[in-house]
Design goal:
With 363 residues, the chain is mainly beta. The protein contains 1 helix and 23 strands. It folds into 3 domains: 83 residues, Immunoglobulin-like, CATH 2.60.40; 74 residues, Immunoglobulin-like (Sandwich), CATH 2.60.40; 147 residues, Jelly Rolls, CATH 2.60.120.260. The strands form 6 sheets. Strands 14-17-22-19-20 form a 5-stranded antiparallel β-sheet, with no helix packed on it. The chain has a 5-stranded antiparallel β-sheet with strand order 15-16-23-18-21, with no helix packed on it.
Length: 363
Amino acid sequence: MKKIITIFGLTGLLFSFVGCQKEGIDDDTSFLSTAASGNLSKIFDISNDNSGNVKITPTGEGVSSFTVAYGHGTGPAASAVVSPGGSTTHSYPEGTYTVAITAKDIAGQETVKTYPLQVTYRAPENLQVTTSGEMKVKATALYANSFLVYYGDVPNEVGTPMAVGQELPAHTYPAGGPYDLKVIAQSGGAATTQLIKTLFGLPLSFESATMDYFFGTFGNVVFTKVANPSSNGLNTSATVGKYEKPVGAASWSGTYSPLNIPINFAHGKKMKMMVYNPSAGNIGKKINVELEWAIGTASANPWGAVVKTALTTSGAWEELEFDFSGNAAIPGTAKFTQLVLRFNDAADGSGEIIYIDNIRITN
């Protein structure tokens, strides 16, 4: 009798154990039908450096993965799978796009939402243009993807493309001028920025409002752009250059002017210049024209390209000629990138003043 009780006790315990096991196993998966993703949205982080890069961060609740279709591109590059909390970056040309984001929940159900995206490139900033003595052009600008260069010496000119960091080959200008060099910085989209630079070369008349007439000085000479002191006779120009050699200025003093457009002896080996001398005491004193830094040479003045011509009158404009053709050492193809002017280098300054204008190369 005692043994029977024990058996029944074990049997009851076994049923009790099996019952507990069954209670812990739940085959009901109906809750998955209510686990759909929600609150779907996105964050667009659009770069402002004209790279076109847009960082896309999809967001939502109950999402196992996102698929972002960029609305641009083809094949595998047109979309990306993103895990919750992750992001993807795509490079867009300027334009309007529709981004589609597909959210998949843990039940495998998908929800698709679309979002408009506008990518606009900013105009390049701080455009700077530099030219070498051989008229090699280079430019820099913030947010520029490329450049177009217009030399300004032919009608209906087609711009020359220039990449960021590139320097264009030397450009030879025909006789005449001045010429307006135009450089357009391109954003990669519709926005552009342009700079026009009136090039400093011969002929030179001091009349341009945009040209940077650079006449650096040495030995205490003063050079300025001023109104014509005698706008009649040979020269009726409104503005001219004023050369002052103060008392005590060194005999070797003068001006130097790096030229955007080189002086090209293929256009002639004679230089002419209008000069106004207000003082009879200056008659007989000489103006030096010195041509320096020829292209392809290592010294400032390899052929001794210096010509001196004396003033012959006062109180009226006269035209002086500086003939370099007598220097056989100078090749006919020479191009000089710096013009130097000196006055009365035989003595220190005594307060002399002269005016110059209309400097040009001729045969």
